[in-house]
């Protein structure tokens, strides 16, 4: 690898369309699929998602929490899932929402961003609540490994608004500073829920990718995403989990229809039309 995460993400979005598909093997979804709530059930679920969507989704986002529930056996399944995704060629965004101080944050960065780590991925979600500056080392490490980060700015859940509107400006400013001068855009993304009523104007200066969860189960539609993100729509990666994962038989068709609808509303071309 010698292209930045921003460059690789831009290419993948242009080729496959603007969609991130979650792997969220919750007990409820394992049950709906007729699988045991066990490491074997997790593995079957994850492998089915990888096999069914990796050739049509620009980004796939495993949710670490559902693997961590099973301790070392769950982490072993997560490692195999990451390896399968990388082999399939899709970009892997691990949703871990990590954030801590200096050497502790460095250890998280080593775990997820260092190319030699068994859990190395293309990008991770980070939490900025120990200060945006506490993430600097992880951002440096991401860039050194051609990886990326998505820092929580305004999340999709309704409880977040009161706290996050006080600090989102600092997150956006920190990410914009890290991305300045990078083309096609930088590798420091932010998370902005697709369910939000409105956005900070400073998002216009981000020059980086925007992960927008909240499609489907949390109520947002592709039209909402286009309305909300307006002038930065080319940088948005809408993310969907439960609405496509409910039924393995419908998984591929639902991913294709979310992907095509997002592309149509966001004025994005899909070079590889499957
Ligand atoms: O970082 C995330 O992916 C994330 C941020 C956010 O603001 N809201 C949000 O729901 N998520 C994640 O997106 C997934 C839920 O997606 P749905 O099942 O489509 O609602 C879960 O893994 C959440 O942790």
UniProtKB/TrEMBL annotation:
PANTHER family xrefs: OROTIDINE 5'-PHOSPHATE DECARBOXYLASE
Similarity comment: family membership: Belongs to the OMP decarboxylase family. Type 2 subfamily.
SUPFAM superfamilies documented for this protein: Ribulose-phoshate binding barrel
Enzyme Commission number, as recorded: 4.1.1.23
Molecular-function GO term, any one: orotidine-5'-phosphate decarboxylase activity
Metabolic or biological pathway: Pyrimidine metabolism; UMP biosynthesis via de novo pathway; UMP from orotate: step 2/2
Keywords: Decarboxylase, Lyase, Pyrimidine biosynthesis
InterPro entries the record matches: Aldolase_TIM, OMPdecase_AS, OMPdecase_type-2, OMPdeCOase_dom, RibuloseP-bd_barrel
Signal peptide (residue range): none
Reaction catalyzed: orotidine 5'-phosphate + H(+) = UMP + CO2
CDD domains: OMP_decarboxylase_like
Domain Orotidine 5'-phosphate decarboxylase: residue ranges: 18-254
The protein's name in its UniProt record: Orotidine-5'-phosphate decarboxylase
């Amino acid at each position: 690898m010698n292209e930045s995460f921003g460059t690789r993400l831009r290419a993948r979005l242009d080729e496959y369309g603007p969609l991130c598909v979650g792997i969220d093997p919750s007990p409820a979804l394992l049950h709906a699929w007729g699988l045991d709530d066990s490491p074997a059930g997790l593995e079957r679920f994850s492998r089915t998602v990888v096999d069914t969507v990796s050739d049509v989704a620009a980004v796939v986002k495993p949710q670490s929490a559902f693997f961590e529930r099973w301790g070392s056996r769950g982490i072993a399944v997560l490692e195999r899932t990451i390896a399968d995704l990388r082999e399939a060629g899709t970009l892997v965004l691990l949703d871990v929402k990590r954030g801590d101080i200096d050497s502790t944050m460095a250890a998280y960065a080593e775990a997820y961003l260092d190319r030699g780590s068994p859990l190395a991925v293309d990008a991770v979600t980070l939490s900025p609540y120990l200060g945006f500056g506490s993430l600097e080392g992880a951002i440096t490490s991401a860039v050194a490994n051609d990886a990326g980060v998505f820092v929580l700015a305004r999340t999709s859940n309704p409880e977040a608004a009161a706290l996050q509107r006080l600090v989102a400006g600092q997150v956006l400013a920190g990410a914009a500073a890290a991305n300045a001068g990078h083309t096609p855009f930088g590798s420091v993304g932010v998370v902005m829920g697709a369910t939000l009523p409105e956005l900070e104007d400073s998002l216009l200066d981000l020059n980086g990718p925007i992960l927008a969860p909240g499609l489907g189960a949390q109520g947002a539609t592709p039209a909402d995403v286009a309305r909300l993100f307006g002038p930065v729509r080319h940088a948005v990666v809408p993310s969907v989990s439960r609405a496509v994962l409910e039924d393995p038989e419908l998984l591929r068709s639902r991913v294709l229809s979310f992907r095509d609808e997002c592309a149509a509303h966001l004025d994005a071309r899909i070079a590889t039309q499957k």
